[in-house]
What we know:
alpha/beta; disordered C terminus
Amino acid sequence: xxxxxxxxxxxxxxxxxxxxxxxxxxxxxxxxxxxxQTLGGFIDSGERTVKGFTHDTxxxxxxxxxxxxxxxxxxxxxxxxxLRYCNSEHVVTAGVGSNGAVSLAxxxxxxxxxxFAEAQDKDAYLTMLGDLDGHAPAVFxxxxxxxxxxxxxxxxxxxxxxxxxxxxESLVREALTSxxxxxxxxxxxxETDQLWSPWLLHAGxxxxxxxxxxxxxxxxxxxxxxxxxxxxxxxxxxxxxFQRLFDDTGVAVVTGSAVTEIVLDDGRxxxxxxxxxxxxxxxxxxxxxxxxxxxxxLLPACAVSAATTESARHYRYGRGAMQIHLALDRPVSWxxxxxxxxxxxxxxxxxxxxxxxxxxxxxxxxxxxxTVVVGQQSLLDPSRAPEGKATxxxxxxxxxxxxxxxxxxxxxxxxxxxxxxxxAYADRVIDQIAQSAPGLVETIVARDIIxxxxxxxxxxxxxxxxxxxxxxxxxxxxxxxxxxxxxxxRTCIDGLWHxxxxxxxxxxxxxxSGHLSAQQIISRGTRRSLTRxxx
Length: 535
């Protein structure tokens, strides 16, 4: 059995969805091939605990999407097809430490700074955001452009003209600085560390990773401007809106069918094969997979250079992650009642404790005191839970894929996540939250645990349970994500494009690589049409 379209997209994560939608709206015929039975990758929701409680299964928060270029193209089309967001216009995120100290961030940056104890930190915070505003063309240009030699050259020239040499040097210095060093050099108090250091984990970084000095103010500015929107009714409604768009534009969706091979003809990608069918592509194949899968599994060895294959084999993956979903008999009652209205809270003591937990996880140990991300989506969207009740979305980003021990020496790691460690570690995490939310344990109606091994089983790009599809250290970031790319999504194989979290601009729900690839394919087609017209 075979089919033919202009473009075939492998995988239906955020980047695959964006690429398919933009191409379809431009008039191209598109086929999506997805190994799972449903579209979405790490975007889903459902009643995972008990009936009436809707949990965002994996990802949840969409500031990167609503602030990105893909949303500019697709936002109105998706809204017409039912996509609605719930957001906070007041407090947006917070941190609470083991000593009970609480730091709050509001949509209003000045209100956030007003809560800092040190007078100089109030000014330094607004200066930080102002400096980012000055660097915005370079920073967001790098995050939203191809970083091949031509793209880097154009970006460097534009930045040099606008920022002068001193501005360029300042930006490069910050880009090479870790988040911890950046904060320590600018602030005296604990508030910015407690608020923003945990957010580095959401970019696949540690507090001591290079690029943190840029990513930290980027994240702060994004949340001040765009908040933390969640999809009304649950993340599955995001996928439903895309499905309606695909129905309306004729996109063919093939689910439950894993791609086993990219078909080449005279060195050009012309389609894909699954166990049961062949999907041919007249213009392009777009692969939302890891570098290892692309270059060592899907392409024939004779089509790929030894250097490219070797580079793909050495692509590294990061720490595993874990999710815990709770159905609660009532909303959480925090010791500091200001937290009762906060959509997302980090239970953390800041960079020092995060660094320890990252080191423990990297050594294969269950962290003694992990950084706990607590999402209270039902505050923003009451439809997530029955009246008077609540959901809790818990994420852990410092987890070993195959634990070899417990930092506290308390948990039995026999049989890894299939053994007693699964429930015992969830208990540790919930108890840690309960230190700042007395009575939490007694309100739990039901819980659901998603271990790193479950993430990998659901999404083959999450190798070793890494939801970000690869370490985001600087040698696997920006132009070098991945090193096989030469800074672009168009590969060395004619007609083949590489997208997804393993490619620039990296993980998250922005859809950046899908957008960049789709727009280039559209542009190349337009140029060819004009050439034929005038020839």
